[in-house]
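Bug: token stream looks shifted between consecutive jobs. Job 1:
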Amino acid sequence: MTAPPFAQRPSKALLIGLVVSGILALLVLALMLISGGPAGFVVSALLAVAPLPVLLAAVLSLDRLEPEPKLHLAFAFAWGAGVAVVMAVGFTLLGQQLFVRAGYGAAVAEDVGTVLLAPVIEEALKGSALLLLLRRRHEIDGLTDGIVYASMAGLGFAAVENVGYYLLAFGEDGVSGAIQLFVLRGLIDPLGHPVYTSMIGLGVAYALTRRTPARFAAIPLGYLGAVFLHALWNGSATTGSLAWLGVAYLVIMAALVLLIVVTVVERRQLIGKMSVYLPGYRPTGLVTDQDVRMLSTLSARKAARRWARGVGLGRAMSDYQQAATELTMLHLRAERQGMDPGRFAVERDAYLGAMAHARRW
């Protein structure tokens, strides 16, 4: 069986980045284990990992119509957990030392590091995962894709960072201290980092998928939005004021609602475009009116996969649905960004070939 066109061979740079990031994340965790001791590390790691399955499922559910390659998602997560964490700690400590040498006290330097340096540095490093994926720009063909990749980088960063925070709380107040902090970071505000960095994801995705003259301005604007949200939360936390924390939380939740609305609207637009573009392929015999209805809602797609599994065609149905979705996305990219007709024809025929290979009902 030939690989479908959407199963591209991973680049060496991507694989190297994934390995390096993973090694750095493991080194950071090993240092935490040595410095905090086995008991504290185990408690902290369990608390940091506990919400991850739910959070990952929530993020990935945003992109059910056109799932991103698993290796690209793993790279974004590992980049956030490894490279971004290591470099963020290093640059933030360096910046704080510069403030101390300039004559500011240690307390001022720490507050500056928390409220100013950390948001500026961390968001730049987490967001750089999306810039690195620009070489695979074909994978970012919608705003939802930018949100998903950014969220994965944010989740990776938060997972490792939380181990460190819980370990510090464990060292000061034992298990109860770690659990109290977990309530704040793991239950009340578990999506902080993903939401912040998703502002950058929106900017990068908009720049890649639109043809407006000022589209690339969306990247720095997204970065500023991420820094603002991050600094707002950190600054509110340093005040110790529940009122300020409440305001920051509401602003972040408003940003989260905005992200969800963007993904829902984009999903509806994609489904609507399927009804526009796919009927044009009826003469090929690869698309029928029943197929268009099946592809046009998530519930119908799920029901079709369930039926296909029952008759031994589960993988074929999944491949057909993904190829049909990618074909629709190809039309959307051509509509939004323009595309060389020869390249369009090559990609279109590849998706039609995948649909023909999969369609056996």
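Job 2, same session, no restart:
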Amino acid sequence: METIFRTLDIPKNHQITFTLPRSIPIGKAEMVLVIHPTLVASAVSKDEALLKLAGTLKSSSNFSGDSVQLQRKMRQEWDG
């Protein structure tokens, strides 16, 4: 699993394209796209911005089920 962070401007046509690093293997993959509008620094602190994301993955099929089993699976990916 690899995390890629990019900041970009959303154009009027709402279409974006990007090139993945060569380290990403060819084939099927799951991808999660999180859209977080840029915040005005003085309006919201970083802590408040983080709290706004709380619970956003609650209904995700990737993070549902037994939380202990999910953590074990994630650790196996790190060790593997």
